[in-house]
Design goal:
Blueprint lengths: L1 E6 L7 E5 L1 H8 L10 E7 L2 E9 L2 H28 L3 H22 L5 E4 L1
Antiparallel strand pairs: 1-2, 1-5, 3-4, 4-5
Length: 121
């Protein structure tokens, strides 16, 4: 499992989204990987200063990520609906359902203005 983490500026606990390697690779091959650049940033976690490679969630970067996740969710939902029409095979739907759930978690993290940073590990 790999992590995509959202961090705030004021020391609030991060939101860590655990994703499978296949999903992470799928994201890496998408527009998601093109949005923002990681920069070593010092933040406070549990009262301790930590340096991490983070992407600053500026309004532009946040908007681009939200648009990216919205588009991906729409595509996955459309593909799942097409598959539902042709078959109800659980194996097919599990992959699509997993992607949609994880994309929604990522979208909600981007929409949460209390998070100032994103980390792709």
């Amino acid at each position: 499992m790999l992590n995509i983490s959202f961090y705030g500026q004021n020391g609030n606990p991060p939101q860590i989204i655990r994703v499978g390697e296949e999903f992470y690779q799928w994201l890496a091959d998408s527009d998601f990987a093109q949005v923002g650049r990681s920069k070593i940033t010092t933040i406070c976690i549990d009262g301790e200063a930590v340096k991490l490679p983070l992407i600053r969630l500026s309004s532009t970067t946040r908007s681009m990520l939200i648009a990216c996740f919205n588009e991906m969710i729409l595509k996955e939902t459309e593909a799942m609906l097409v598959e539902l029409e042709s078959t109800l095979a659980k194996e097919i739907l599990e992959k699509r359902t997993y992607r949609i759930k994880k994309l929604l978690e990522l979208l909600n993290g981007c929409k949460n203005s209390s998070f100032a940073y994103l980390q792709r590990e």
